[in-house]
Specification:
Elements: H1 3-7, H2 10-19, H3 27-41, E1 46-48, E2 57-61, H4 69-79, H5 81-91, E3 92-93, H6 99-112, E4 124-128, H7 131-138, H8 144-153, E5 157-161, E6 165-169, E7 174-180, H9 182-188, H10 191-195, E8 202-206, H11 225-236, E9 239-243, H12 245-264, H13 267-271, H14 276-289, E10 295-296, H15 298-325, H16 335-345, E11 349-351, H17 352-356, H18 365-373, E12 378-383, E13 392-397
Parallel strand pairs: 1-9, 2-7, 2-8, 3-4, 4-7, 9-10
Antiparallel strand pairs: 5-6, 11-13, 12-13
Amino acid sequence: MTTFELMSYGPLGEAVEASMPTSEADPIGVWAASLSLYSAAISRRVRLHNRRPVVVWTVLAGRSAIGRKGYALNTATAVLAKPIGGFIHSRKRAGVSSGPSLVDMLSGLELDTMGAEGGVDSRCILLEEEWASVLKDQKKCSKFSTMFRNAWDGKMISNRTKKDGLQSVAQPLLGFHAHITPGEWGKYVSSSEALGGSYNRLLPVLVTRSKMLPFDSKPEIPDTSALREAFEWAEEENRVMRFSAEAGERFDEIRAIVEDRMAELPELLASYMERSAEQVHRVAAVLSATEMTEEISREAVEAAWNFVSFSMSSVEKLVKDAATGNEGAKPMKTPEDLIRDVLRRCGGEAKSSDLLRPLWGKLNAQAIKETVEGMDDVEMWSEKGGGRGAPKIMYRLIEEGQEPVQPKAKVIDFASHSKSQPVQTPPVITNPFEGLI
C-alpha cells in the first residue's frame, strides 16, 4: 500500500482517491486540504467527548510550482464542492494577521447569524495560500499567537476596542489551511513560537507533484453523494464523538509511542509534536463522522495515526533542513529583542516617539505597549510636562543588576482630577492613556 492509501479512509478517502487520476497534486496534499475544509464545515455540531472542537489545521510545505500546493487545494475544493461548497464559498477568509482582527472576524460572523434558524454560527476557514507574507505581519501583534492557540483549543477569545467595547467569541470554530515553501518555513516559522506551542496545533505535510498531465486534460469530479449525506447528518443535531473500546486501546498505545518519540528528540523538534495524540483523535473523529456514526473505530484511528505520523516526519525534515540551511544566517528577532536593541542604542531610556521611529514597519505603538507589559526587564511610565499636551510615555531597560527607578505605582488618570486638586505625578506608573502612544 502507498503512504496515502494507509491514511485514506471512508467516503472522504474514496472521493480524494477517485479524483487523483486527473490531478497533478500530491494525494497527501489533497487529503490534508480536504480534512481542513471538511472538519471546519462540520465543527458547529460535531465535538469530541471532552467538548473540544474537531477542526484539523493543515499546512502544505512544498517548493514553488513543483509542490503543486495550489493544485492540491483546488482539487480538494472541487471534490467537496457539492457536499460543502456553500460553506467554503461563504465562510473562507484570508489575510488575518492580528489578534484583534481575528476576534473581529469571528465576532462579526456570530452577529450576522443572530436569530438565524440554525442558531449563532462562527464557523470560518482561513485559507492562507501565501502564509509567509501573513506570518511576517503576525509577528507585529503580540496577541495573535495566544488567540490563535485558544481558537484551536475552542477557548474564548476576546478583545476590547474604544469603538465597539468588548468583543468576544465564546467558542471559536476556526478552520485553517496554509501553504509555504520549505525555505520560507526556515525563515518565518520561529523557534520561540514553536516552543510556545503555536505550531503544534498544525499538521504540516511535505508535498510534491504527483504527475504531469497533458495541457488539455480536464478534472473529473467523483460522486460525492455519500459525503453530502454525511454532512447533512452532521448538521442535523449535536454529535459527540467517542472511541469504541478497541479504538480507545489503540489510542492509548499511540499516546505512549508519541511521548517516547518526543523524549528522544531535541526540545525544539518535540515541541511541534506535543499535540500529536489529540491530532489523531480529531482526524479519527472527522473520518468517523463521514460514515455517519458517533463511534470512532479502530480503523479510523489507524488511518488518522498514519496521517499524523507522516506530518511528524515532515516536521522533522523541515526543522532539520532549516537548521542546516540557515547556518550563519541572521535570525529574525522577536518584538522583545527589537525593543531591547533600540533602548540600548538610546542609552537605556527613550520616549515612545524615539522608540517608534526605528521600529517603524515592525511594531506599532499599541504593539510596543502590549509587548512591554509582558516584559520583566523593561518598565513603562508616563511623565506630564509643564504644558497642556498629553503626558509623555517613557520606556527604560533594566539591565542585569539594576533596580527599577521606583516600584510601579498606582495608575492615576489625570483627566479625572479637577484643577483645584493638583496631583503629584509618580515617576513610574502603568499606562492609563490608551491610544496616546
